[in-house]
Design goal:
The chain is α/β, with parallel strands linked by helices. The protein is 41% helix and 21% strand. It has 8 helices and 12 strands. α1 links the parallel β1 and β2. α2 packs parallel to α3 and α6 crosses α8. The longest helix is centred in the middle third of the chain and has 18 residues. It is elongated, with a radius of gyration of 20 Å.
């Protein structure tokens, strides 16, 4: 499980990150709100743990920015502010749970597991398939014919975008906006180069080519 920890207090950050690693998870750390927001936007995380009071950008502002961009990653807020009004502020800003400092690591893990269960139940699909290609959105594992495929983050997002639209022609404009968040044409072969790398990993060695080029239109993934 990939976890983003946004915490500026060194001792708390080390405590959380070390505990998550020992529990078998893969944590990343940001020590201020701006870096945390950037990482949460650029990378795919299963859950975010964010301190309420952060330098450069407040924790609630980070959450509000994520929700306004339709980022639905569950967020657990950590705070020394324990009164009811602060809890309400945190939840109204888009937080999914609120844990008051100091806390036991066992409770932190229990809160994380509860949020992930809730998120999994609420998700319409946690596994995408296209023929013998399978993508698990929770574990971020991709397999073809049972064999694991290792993808970089952008490759994963590109493949996910295609797999959510099986047998549908996806234009370059759709990919630029949906995967790169570009609302202009960068006038480069960015998409073609990235698609070539993705095909090498997904289709090489297989008789059937799942990712197809639709000349003059874009790309399509065969879901049959």
């Amino acid at each position: 499980m990939r976890v983003l920890v946004i915490e500026d207090d060194k001792s708390h950050a080390e405590y959380i990150v070390s505990g998550l690693k020992e529990a078998g998870h893969n944590p990343d750390l940001a020590i201020n709100g701006i870096d945390g927001l950037h990482m949460a936007t650029e990378e795919k995380y299963d859950i975010i743990i964010a301190d309420r009071m952060l330098p450069k950008l407040d924790g609630l502002a980070v959450i509000q920015a994520l929700r306004s961009s339709n980022n639905k990653t569950p967020v657990l807020i950590l705070s020394t502010l324990s009164n009811v009004e602060e809890r309400i502020k945190g939840l109204k800003a888009g937080g999914d749970d609120y844990l008051t400092k100091p806390f036991s690591f066992g409770e932190l893990l229990a809160r994380i597991e509860a949020l992930l269960r809730r998120n999994t139940i609420e998700s319409e699909h946690t596994v995408l398939t296209a023929g013998d290609l399978e993508m698990n959105l929770i574990t971020r594992e991709v397999k073809r014919d049972g064999k694991k495929i290792t993808l970089q983050n952008r490759e994963f997002r590109l493949l996910e975008f295609l797999m959510r639209r099986p047998n549908q022609v996806v234009t370059r404009t759709m990919l630029l906006e949906g995967v790169w968040d570009f609302h202009f044409n960068p006038a480069t072969n960015l998409i073609d180069a990235q698609m070539s790398k993705l095909r090498q990993k997904v289709d090489k060695g297989h008789a059937k080519q799942i990712i197809q080029t639709i000349r003059g239109a874009g790309y399509k993934i065969c879901g049959d």
